[in-house]
Design brief:
The structure is a single chain. By secondary structure, the chain is of the alpha/beta class. The strands form two sheets. A six-stranded mixed sheet has the order 2-3-1-4-5-6. The protein is globular and about 70 Å long.
């Protein structure tokens, strides 16, 4: 599930096969004539998603990235990919009864308006990391990957590796130094009380093996990197934003390899763990010093340590006690994959616009993208020196202004929009 590049290649191959079969079934050439399409059309506003006829159960829709279809009489919906969404290029005026869908599996760091209802209310369908989305795009590995011992090192083996390689009990790898929650401040304070091997660009006291330094983003999903992480007893797993259900590979990677995650991020992350003792939550401790003392206690006691690795040490079905995860694996034993979610979301919208509720008045809300305002992981207070604090507040102005433009069918001029947003922010009009 986490090997995205492999998944993407497979998806593309499968997509080509499906496209060929569908074109053959409908006797349509690759360059289907614009006027000949008589099926509901769903337009991807970004260079993303499926192209061509697609069968979704009993219904068939035509998906395209061609903006010329904005004028087509069979256009029923537009899907936006949040990470590449640009305000200045929204399809305004919005056609009457044209449904909007939002696919956004990332945190809203790159698009602050996403955390406010004014903007979210513009969308009729959602696929986000939230459990409340129409189609969830949360990353969760399959049960076999989660319980496999492929990368697992026993407590005894880790003790030996720590002595041989002079390893700290805790691993920290993070190259994004600009975060909403000031996670490096917390780690720096933690390092005063317990040893941490920090390999990132922000906090660094050790160098990665040379083979892992080349094309670092690619190697994050390689077996070599997994084996590297697996040698450590604990892994510090801090997300770059704090949102309900926003859980990334930062948590899943240590769980997969058998290194206990020390987690900070989604307040609801425990709802997705194999069991109640699969990870240690930073929020359960009043200070880094208290957390360090607890880790030290676990680190030297094999019995206590192994209690956190029951998903590796016990039969894969017996070790899972989280009913939410058990229920998920009944339907999806391979977990959630982003590209599977993308495919499901396309078909969800296709089915919705074909059935009786095609003109439903449902709107997205913060329930589908619930992120708290940026606060320091160390102090649990707003840090006025953190630029993300102002970014968050400015996003509220953007959300209001965007909603005003879309509802009133006003085209967006980027310069004027930026000036008006700044004016609203300075005058406290958000």
């Amino acid at each position: 599930m986490l090997h995205r590049r492999t998944s993407f290649c497979i998806l593309m191959i499968v997509g080509l096969i499906i496209t060929f079969i569908q074109m053959w079934l409908f006797n349509k050439p690759a360059n289907t004539n614009f006027k000949d399409i008589k099926k509901p059309i769903i337009l991807w506003w970004n260079d993303f998603g499926f192209n061509g006829f697609k069968s979704c159960g009993q219904f068939i829709c035509y998906f395209t990235q061609d903006e010329n279809f904005l004028t087509h009489s069979f256009l029923k919906a537009i899907i936006f990919y949040g990470s590449s969404m640009e305000y200045r290029n929204l399809p305004i005026p919005r056609g009457k009864n044209i449904q909007w869908g939002l696919l956004h599996e990332e945190s809203p760091r790159n698009n602050p308006a996403f955390v406010y209802d004014d903007f979210l209310n513009l969308f009729n369908y959602s696929s986000t990391f939230s459990r409340y989305s129409d189609i969830i795009s949360l990353q969760i590995p399959g049960i076999d990957e989660l319980t496999s011992k492929k990368f697992y090192f026993s407590f005894e083996k880790k003790e030996i590796l720590m002595k041989q390689n002079d390893l700290a009990p805790l691993l920290y790898i993070q190259s994004n130094c600009d975060t909403t929650n000031d996670r490096d401040d917390y780690i720096a304070e933690l390092m005063k009380y317990i040893r941490v091997d920090a390999y990132g660009s922000c906090l660094n006291n050790r160098k990665l093996p040379e083979s892992l330094q080349i094309d670092h983003l690619r190697t994050l999903y390689d077996d070599e990197f997994y084996n590297f992480v697996a040698k450590y007893k604990f892994t510090l797993a801090f997300e770059n934003a704090d949102c309900e259900d926003y859980i990334t590979e930062k948590l899943w990677r240590p769980l997969i390899v058998g290194s206990i995650p020390i987690y900070y991020g989604s307040p609801s992350f425990k709802d997705w763990l194999p069991n109640e003792k699969s990870a240690i939550s930073v929020r359960d401790f009043s200070s880094p010093k208290e957390l360090a003392n607890f880790i030290e206690k676990i680190s030297i006691n094999e019995t206590l340590y192994n209690e956190y690795l029951s998903h590796k040490l016990i039969d894969k079905f017996s070790s899972l006690t989280n009913e939410r995860l058990i229920s998920l694996y009944r339907d999806k034993p391979k977990g959630f994959d982003f590209y599977d979610s993308l495919n499901e979301f396309e078909c969800y919208i296709c089915n919705a616009i074909n059935n009786e509720n095609k003109n439903r008045k449902y709107m997205m809300t913060r329930k589908q993208l619930n992120c708290t305002q940026p606060i320091s992981a160390l102090t649990q207070k707003v840090n006025p020196k953190n630029k993300w604090h102002n970014w968050w507040a400015n996003g509220k102005c953007e959300a209001k202004l965007l909603a005003y433009h879309v509802v009133n069918n006003l085209k967006i001029n980027e310069t004027i929009f930026s000036e008006e947003t700044a004016r609203m922010y300075l005058n406290n009009k958000c």
